[in-house]
């Protein structure tokens, strides 16, 4: 008897196992049996109402980060919505469904929202079906496109995209609402188009099923009247949103937002901001967007607009193909073909900050640089024609502005976008002896050792301040040193490593892009900059170093002192020196303050380093 029982059980098991053709939890379905035939496109169209204030808002802020109220774009804000979807734009228009979900401000630099929404439909054959949207809503764009990632019920297997466009807005006075007084109701138009389903005949209406699997609507085609399910729906949604998104970005400054101001020629942004300061910025953006489309000259101009957030700041209205965001210092001819202007494109840039007194020294120095270097002179004494007799002077670039410093010129004339063609940039003083220096060899070594910031070693007894920059006999390059006891808290930090001086630095293109931003407009002597260079490269103790094999002599000519002015009974050089020291302190303070502010804003614990 027991034997018989176990025989039966075995049979049952076998029949279960042989039933499925692959494994226990999945089996293949026939597309045909599921009614999946040819895909068809459908177009859906409706309006979207986003009410961001008043008595019954449909969009509310649910969370924000500690830094959100300090972010110019409201980064970190989360909002929940349950917005009605209607047939027409009027608030009392027939409701076809609701948009429910979350959006989050996920962009640090512009208003780019992460949208996670379900459109839950209640009307007609769509009742009970939903579509899901997951995408990016670049609010400032005229048309925003978001992917439809799926759906349920009638929209099973849906795919497609939604396009949102600002339609209209309604600015209301909410008598009943004491706190806010006024609020915005966003009326959005959602055009749903091109819903696709499987059908044998694309010309006729698709036959679709509800989520219960019962055909809701039968087409006239008898072949499909047998009740087979036709499930596969691909939906393209053309959405015209009025106020797609309302809700609160309460502390965002409109004037700080990267608004395409020229699109709103007649609107005074600060004034708008003032007037509507109690409102959400998003709502304001919607107002602006909508005003943009109204009346006046902008009405004529209702075609598609260009707005490319990835363009350089301020150039968003240009098609990317025409944007030339970098330039060079190459001189061009006034005739002939532009493409034939440049016989040689120097790959390196050398600048000297000079006065006529050092003419002979500079002449000797410049001769050490080949044609592969663009030579640029910053004349701090205003004397330039006196250099004309030098052969190389004709092809050099002369910038003459009296009584300024190297870092002042560098900030004004060496913007990273201007010097972008150069692999390496030398920003050198005038009192350097280059007898033993070969520039091409120097660059080879810098490349070989991966130095983004470097300087040649200094000959012994030539104006040495720091051990680090002292040239060595036995190496090509060194990246660290020992200093006097107590000078270095960490062997990887200045002045023991990650350190060169400011008299003869050489920057890679990449490093210069960072260092340029660190130069302060008012701190012209650059004191303290050398200690902070390490912030621009990572790891600094490997990418900053001194080239020993190509060394120079620092002649320590105190040229700047003579450019000073005597004041309060002090000699000019004393005033200059005093200011140098003061600037160093100011720079350190600014850096420390900026660093603390950043860590605090990001909710991070500052590392227990460093004032530099
Ligand atoms: C920003 O929000 C924090 C709380 O998250 C608050 O303590 C701080 O006062 C707010 N700052 C401003 C400027 O509103
Ligand atoms: C939608 O379906 C629900 C439940 O199935 C039903 O209660 C409701 O009346 C339907 N609405 C419309 C407009 O058909």
What key attributes describe this structure?
Dirigent, Spore Coat Polysaccharide Biosynthesis Protein SpsA, Chain A, 9-stranded mixed β-sheet, alpha+beta, Allene_oxi_cyc_Dirigent, disordered N terminus, AOC barrel-like, 11-stranded mixed β-sheet, 612 residues, 11 helices, transmembrane helix, binds 2-acetamido-2-deoxy-beta-D-glucopyranose, elongated
Describe, in plain words, how this protein is organized in 3D.
The chain starts with a helix and ends in an 11-residue tail after the last helix. The chain contains eleven helices and 20 strands. It is of the alpha+beta class. Helix content is 19%, strand content 24%. It is elongated and about 90 Å long. Among the domains are: 39-187, AOC barrel-like (Beta Barrel); 348-558, Spore Coat Polysaccharide Biosynthesis Protein SpsA, Chain A (Alpha-Beta Complex), CATH 3.90.550. Strands 1, 2, 3, 4, 5, 6, 7, 8, 9, 10 and 11 form an eleven-stranded mixed sheet that branches. Bound molecules: 2-acetamido-2-deoxy-beta-D-glucopyranose (NAG) (2 copies). One 2-acetamido-2-deoxy-beta-D-glucopyranose binds at residues 122-123, 127-128.
Helices and strands, with pairings:
Layout: H1 2-19, E1 41-51, E2 59-63, E3 78-86, E4 95-105, E5 112-121, E6 130-138, E7 143-152, E8 160-165, E9 168-173, E10 182-197, E11 233-238, H2 269-275, H3 281-292, H4 296-300, E12 348-354, H5 359-366, E13 373-379, E14 397-400, H6 406-413, E15 424-428, E16 432-433, H7 439-448, E17 453-458, E18 477-478, E19 506-508, H8 509-518, H9 529-532, H10 540-543, E20 544-554, H11 572-601
Parallel strand pairs: 1-11, 8-11, 12-13, 12-15, 13-14, 17-20
Antiparallel strand pairs: 1-3, 1-10, 2-3, 3-4, 4-5, 5-6, 6-7, 7-8, 9-10, 10-11, 15-19, 16-20, 17-19, 18-20
Bound molecules: 2-acetamido-2-deoxy-beta-D-glucopyranose (2 copies).
One 2-acetamido-2-deoxy-beta-D-glucopyranose is lined by residues 66, 69, 251.
